[in-house]
Amino acid sequence: MSKSLNSRTPALEDFLCFSLYGAGLAMTRLYKPLLEPFNLTYPQYLVLTALKEKGGVKVGELGERLQLETNTLTPLVKRLEAAGLVSRQRDKADERVVRVALTAQGQDVVIAAHACIPQQVLEATGLSAEELQDLNRKLKTLQAELVEG
């Protein structure tokens, strides 16, 4: 246990929230040059990845999956649509609902990105695949505990 954890005022680097914040920033910075050849931002990459898993979803469902508000997600989806990577269509049963799916071009881009980026990220972490999977499980557990509170 670090000395500062025993003191009345812990050091900034001893706060879990600060470590998670810094790791998140570092991860986003890592992805930037990896995504440039695909002309994608990190949030766009996440949208395409989510749609690869399950396409034809409602915008609201996609937002829940990505933990993004509609006012953040809608411009993202519109930019992806303008780039020809996704399609947006009104639901036939309910015109108020918009569904989003990958286009053939979007499918090709996400497949190409997935062919190289995960390995590059693994190498950048300095962790083994098993260590990275274990860390990911622990972070998911932490998130669930914090959400369920």
Task: Describe the 3D structure.
- This protein has helices spanning 16-35, 42-53, 59-66, 70-82, 104-125, 129-148; strands spanning 57-58, 86-90, 98-102.
- The chain has 149 residues and is mostly helical.
- A three-stranded antiparallel β-sheet has the order 1-3-2.
- Strand 2 (86-90) and strand 3 (98-102) form a beta hairpin.
- Helix 1 (16-35) crosses helix 5 (104-125).
- The model has no long low-confidence stretch (mean pLDDT 93).
Can I get a quick summary?
The protein has six helices and three strands. The protein is mostly helical and 149 residues long.
Kindly state the mean pLDDT as a whole number?
93
Rg from alpha-carbon coordinates: 19 Å
Distance from first to last alpha carbon: 25 Å
Order of helices and strands: HHEHHEEHH
Low-pLDDT stretches: none
**Which structural class should the secondary elements be placed in?**
mainly alpha
State the helical fraction: 55-70%
Order of strands in the sheet with the most strands? 1-3-2
Strand residue percentage: 5-15%
Strand element count: 3
Give a quick account of the main beta sheet: strands, pairing sense, barrel closure: 3 strands, antiparallel
Number of helices: 6
Q: Which word captures the global form? A: globular
Sum up the structure in keywords.
149 residues; mainly alpha; globular; 3 strands
Q: Topology, pairings included?
A:
Elements: H1 16-35, H2 42-53, E1 57-58, H3 59-66, H4 70-82, E2 86-90, E3 98-102, H5 104-125, H6 129-148
Antiparallel strand pairs: 1-3, 2-3
